[in-house]
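Researcher: Here's my situation. A collaborator sent me these components and asked whether they could plausibly form a single complex. I don't have experimental data yet, so a predicted model of the whole assembly would be a useful starting point for our discussion.
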Amino acid sequence: MSMNDILLEVNDLHAGIEGKEILKGINLTIRPGEVHAIMGPNGSGKSTLSGVLAGDPRFTVTSGSACFHGVDLLSLSPENRSHEGLFLSFQYPVEIPGVSMVNFMRAAVNAKRKYFNEAPLSAGDFLKLMRQKRAVVELDNKLASRSVNEGFSGGEKKRNEIFQMAVLEPRLSILDETDSGLDIDALRIVASGVNKLKTDHNATIVITHYQRLLDYIRPDFVHILYKGRIVYSGGSELALELEEKGYDWIKEQVDGQEQS
Amino acid sequence: MKDTSLRQYIELYRSQREILDAASPEAVRRLRPRALSALEALGRLPRKGDEGYVRTSLEDMFAPDFGVNLQRICFEADLAETFRCDVPKVSTLLGVILNDIYRPTATLQVQLPEGVTLCTFAEAAVRCPEVLRDYLGSVADMAGDAATALNTLLLQDGLLLHVSEGVKLDRPIQLVSLFNAPLPMLAIRRLLVVMEPDSEARLLLCDHSRDTGHSYLGSQVIEAVVGRNAGLDIYEIEEANTLTSRVSRLYARQLDGSRLTVNGTTLSGGVTRNDYIIDVDGDRCDTRLAGMVTGIGGQSSDNATVVRHHGSHCHSEQLFKYVLSDEAAGAFEGLIVVDEGAVKTEAFQTNRNLLASSGARMHTRPQLLIYCDDVKCSHGATTGQLDERALFYMRSRGIPEGEARLMLMQAFMADVIDTITLDGLRDRLRHLVERRLCGSDAICGDCGLKKQ
């Protein structure tokens, strides 16, 4: 895949929740090998964008398109988006009492294999895969026998997200506020896991409020989302500028334009 | 008693009393006057809307013109052919109750350990008349309970399980109640369990019906006395067709240091009403009462519990869960009573329900009556839908929606299934519940009943 291939092309995407429009025309182009950071103040639509791309049924797309390596992403069910190579690391990973991590991952892995007409993994191969991928984020073996995310600490939950990402080997990963609720050690482990999984063929969208995570995961592009639009794009230096100056100057600029 | 469905049974009793009594041992006959006066005082069976009967009308359930097997006719079924109710990896001592007539298997007769009696009341009246006389009717209180009184009024023969002091049964006893009659039938079923001190036993009770096109009603009363430091597990599985209904009462009395586990699973059936009435008379007893319902179609499943703590330092837990789909209806009424003097009681009750369709309905009413200060008690009930966040989370990992729903419903039932201490049965039920949640018939083992 050459650098000119486009992995994700989002065009004039409008979406909302319960009749309220939140995304008001998102344009975004992502190529393999790239890391994009999407930053923005609270309520700007960051989590809506990640939810809409992953197919969260709470959101309704009203217009626009998202083309994912030639596939009409928005027409796919969440499960098929996953099979096609999209992965969302949740800001708040969901606890699922009674469903063990092992059964959860086996169902996920084998559903993907079935989608590509492959036979389910043997028990031995599956356990081997789990062992390998756990090492990426130093996830304790004990967590594997527990219910999904139940009783996990904040750091364990986020490491578990990256572990799942390692197993599913997505082409595009969206990390939604992966740094929230993490202490510095956990942040380092999570970021190093993400970096280990990075290749020339996959891409990452890092959604974050703070610049902190970007010290560990260096973005190629930084976009500022405000009032449902990407109002500013730049290189990694933009993140530093935001850290220094905050979001107010962006808000003033955009709000000023709206008034004139 | 005009125009009640009870009247036809009372008239039947009055006109057929001699025939009824001829097949009944004295220990049964002597209970009848009390049964009759209880029924006459009540006048009718409970109707929908009566206290404790929000969903279920026993009047309606008993109204059809069912045949009652006064002549003790056994409609033989080739059991080997139609019935193989295996629980893999669990070797049981199997007996069959064909409609209302007990048929032990040859192996059961041979393999029952010394000190364990499992026989009909008629046989017990000869072998151990004192056990029958002392215990039959001693736990099941007929006053105010029309279903139990009616069962007693029409009862001819039942089944006694007696485990002598210190005898611990390794293998579970499995009793399969099977409907197979060429006419609509009311089966009067009765089981008396007497656990002498320090004895242990596990009972697996399975309800089935053969698809004959006829409707059946099972009237079941179980009485259990769990002696000092004795342990009794009762697992009930109802897997019948929609024409088969069930009115069951399980009464237990626990003496000092005894342990009782009751786990009732309603996989399928028509209308089901189960009552569990546990009197914890002794001190330091342990009581585990659990139940689950997988309701689909127009199934109606109703469980009511009463756990009365009279002794001190006892622990009781109740856990009931329902997953209801389609137009299925469910009800749970649970009551914990802690008597004055039942100090250091720990009594807990949980009822959680999942409505998997917009047409499913659940009624729940948890109640606590505490007349003692020094106790720990709680109750809680929730009714809701599948967690949409969990569902999306699973789908986002590639798990198809249908499979994700099934996994969540199974997970919901996991803690009820985990209360089963028989490993093989636990695995079996996990599988049966999964099949039922998929919407298919949960056929036990290789049972050929559904294939007729």
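Model: Some features of this prediction you could bring to your collaborator: Chain B touches chain A through 23 residues (CB under 8 Å). Residues 445-452 of chain B have pLDDT under 50 and may be disordered.
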